[in-house]
Amino acid sequence: MTSRILVTGGAGFIGSAYVRALLGPAGPPGVSVTVLDKLTYAGSLARLDPVRGHPGLTFVHGDVCDAVTVRRLAAGHDEIVHFAAESHVDRSIQDGTGFTHTNVMGTHTLLDAALRHGVRTFVQISTDEVYGSIPEGAAREEDPLRPSSPYAASKAAADLVALAHHHTHGLDVRVTRCSNNFGPYQHPEKAVPRFVATLLTGGDLPVYGDGRQVRDWLHVDDHVRAVELVRTAGRPGQTYNIGGGTSLTNLDLAHRLLRWCGAGPERITHVEDRKGHDRRYAVDHGKITAELGYRPRVGFEAALAATADWYRTHRAWWEPLLESV
Ligand SMILES: NC(=O)c1ccc[n+]([C@@H]2O[C@H](COP(=O)([O-])OP(=O)(O)OC[C@H]3O[C@@H](n4cnc5c(N)ncnc54)[C@H](O)[C@@H]3O)[C@@H](O)[C@H]2O)c1
């Protein structure tokens, strides 16, 4: 089926990977994409270089909170895949105002426009952080939301607003909640590129607190595949967890990257822990596997090394971004 898809945050790390996949050689036929992105410190048009000039791609520089722009765009699109967000937990701890504004009001503005203009499908990209810290086991979609950080709270609020538009108005909303992504083109404020950039520039790895916080790691290509399954075959009003299947402490991650660059553990520095730092995240992705056939395909060890190699060979992309870290 042909589709005009509005991808918000398409100049960000994950949104751009999704756009490159949609418009790449293995992408679905008959799809055109409009990227709506504010190009905050986190946005980078260079991430779209591989599809620059593609006849199916349009870029709009704008804000998801701007109702006039959003309504105009919604009127010309069949589907919305909503990645745009303020996404860095540490920044939300320093000042969460912009997080509530963009993540909650921006989502609300898009949903309202989708409803007014008969948008067929709305995919809300969320996070496992909405479940809060999970001492054991893995969060399932129907579990209560217990977000800890202002970032996670803004994403949880956005999910609820999105699902309310389904329950109240019948809008076809689908929510995805993924774990920690890694891959090329991620801003160096995030753990994997931050560690790699630090190693490549001769510094010590800053590990929060005791480093025993546990995270599940998901390669961005697996995430993109899962989002595409949800867009094309998910059910209205449903939430789907997306995990990567590799659970590591932050200290384990640091040790793996030290080995990648041939450095020893003396290059780890424990720094003051993040305020309210969640101890453990884990998601059960059995639902998306059973319903849509999703399975992570990317092997973690090789993909982590390939990702680190990518940063080694793309210094010109990330070095200027260190100023905003
Ligand atoms: N990176 C992860 O590991 C991860 C994990 C779970 C969930 N998520 C979610 O996935 C989505 C994408 O994350 P990411 O890592 O690609 O984020 P990112 O920070 O790399 O990109 C966010 C993009 O949104 C744009 N943006 C920000 N505010 C905007 C606004 N008001 N209007 C329009 N555009 C705006 C930015 O310019 C940027 O291009 C987010 O919704 C995030 O919450 C990310």
UniProtKB/TrEMBL annotation:
Keywords noted in UniProt: Lyase, NAD
Domain of life where this protein originates: Bacteria
E.C. no: 4.2.1.46
Limits of the NAD(P)-binding domain: 6-305
Family: Belongs to the NAD(P)-dependent epimerase/dehydratase family. dTDP-glucose dehydratase subfamily.
PANTHER family the record matches: DTDP-D-GLUCOSE 4,6-DEHYDRATASE-RELATED (PTHR43000)
Name this protein carries in UniProt: dTDP-glucose 4,6-dehydratase
Organism: Streptomyces achromogenes
Gene from which the chain derives: rfbB
